[in-house]
Structure formats: C-alpha cells, structure tokens
Design goal:
The chain has one domain. By secondary structure, it is mostly helical. The chain has helices at 3-8, 21-45. It is elongated and about 50 Å long. It contains two helices and no strands.
Length: 55
C-alpha cells in the first residue's frame, strides 16, 4: 500500500524518509501542495480587512 492510499484510508503514515521511489514522489508532491496552501493562507491572513480584491 502506498503513502497516498494510506492517507485516503485514514491510516497512520509517515510523511518523510520513504524508501520506495513511488512514495518518495508522492511525498515530494504532497510537500509542494502543503507549501502552496500555506502560502495562500499566509497571504489571506495578512491582508487588510478592506482589501476585498486580495481576499
């Protein structure tokens, strides 16, 4: 069972240091997605209340 399948089934999983190439690729993709989401949340949380265009 690969990393993504474990996540979807709600099973315990490790986020880093995978040995299989498939899980390493999934790990890298998930890391990129998380960083992108954190950037979006940061931008949203640090914009002015009156700045509806940015929000």
């Amino acid at each position: 069972m690969n990393l993504e399948e474990r996540i979807k089934k709600g099973m315990i999983f490790y986020e880093t240091e995978h040995k299989s190439i498939e899980n390493k690729e999934i790990e890298e993709r998930l890391d990129k997605e998380r960083r992108h989401c954190k950037e979006k949340m940061f931008d949203y949380n640090h914009c002015r209340p009156d700045d509806q265009k940015t929000r």
